[in-house]
Amino acid sequence: MKHYLSINDIDSLPNWVDEAIALKKSPYGFQHLGKQKTICLLFFNNSLRTRLSTQKAAMYLGMEVMIMNFGSEGWALEYEDGTMMNQGTSEHIKEAARVVSQFCDIVAIRAFAKLEDKITDEAEEVLTGFAKHASIPIVNMESSVAHPLQALADAITLAEHKTKSKPKVVLSWAPHPKALPHAVANSFVQMMKKQEADFIITHPKGYELNPEITNGCQIEYDQETALENADFIYVKNWSSYEDYGQVLHQNTNWMMTEKKLGHAKFMHCLPVRRNVVVEDAVLDKNQSLVIEQANNRTFAAQLVLKKILENHE
Ligand code: CP
């Protein structure tokens, strides 16, 4: 595997999940792979889990880690070819990506959607710019439209907690005061399409995700109907895709509650706003898997880095 940019870079999800669970039992077993190798983590946006879990994963593999908060510390990058750079940008992606490639062996990048323009966000200029101009493997730590490390961690968590071969898994939209990107939901849907499950997406009308991603998925606009007999309920907010980046309405009655959860396990990628997205009682119950999900981010990242390092031995 050269890069890990999307869920489509996973050749066999069941095999990857098994391998990640094995790594979790013996995380120091592959230190030789990362010896005298460096990973650079570039953050154009904030993070808690992604930063620490990817760093921990690299340390488990014996790698050196360099971290840069590019969004606040780096030069403003230009991505267009042939631009006269007499405005706000100071450095072109062509130089930046090639310079970074000299300092490390893998570069991992976080660059969220700005939610101002769908075409610009879907062009993934940061990620594709680095993939085009860097000479080293690229790992997606959440881009405009995808969060494949989170989705792989979620697949591991589902595998560890499911009690039947084909569980019912519901992805439920939840209210949020701010406009949030679609990346987590997109990658979760793509991951669910790669495994055996009775999978349903529920959200108010107007919050349909990109139909190219949800193609073939069951969509139920009535949350109560969707949640019936669920084994896992994955809660996430996203802004409108059609009316791009807009919060259409607050829909506070879509918040996840203890009553709605029933006997299902609760999942969320974190960070989460208590008593807006989900009530305290859900997060404070044993049925909540959010801390396990965050822990599995390490082993998802470790598996991805291991596969890249093995490919470059
Ligand atoms: N879930 C997730 O990506 O968390 P952070 O934004 O804290 O990295």
UniProtKB/TrEMBL annotation:
Residues reported in the UniProt entry to bind carbamoyl phosphate: 47-50, 75, 110, 147-150, 269-270, 297
Q: Which residues form a coiled coil?
A: none
Please list the residue ranges annotated as the Aspartate/ornithine carbamoyltransferase carbamoyl-P binding domain: 2-160
Q: Which residues bind N(2)-succinyl-L-ornithine?
A: 142, 176, 236, 273
Pathway the protein acts in: Amino-acid biosynthesis; L-arginine biosynthesis
E.C. number: 2.1.3.11
The identity of this protein, by name, is N-succinylornithine carbamoyltransferase
Q: Which organism is it from?
A: Flagellimonas aquimarina
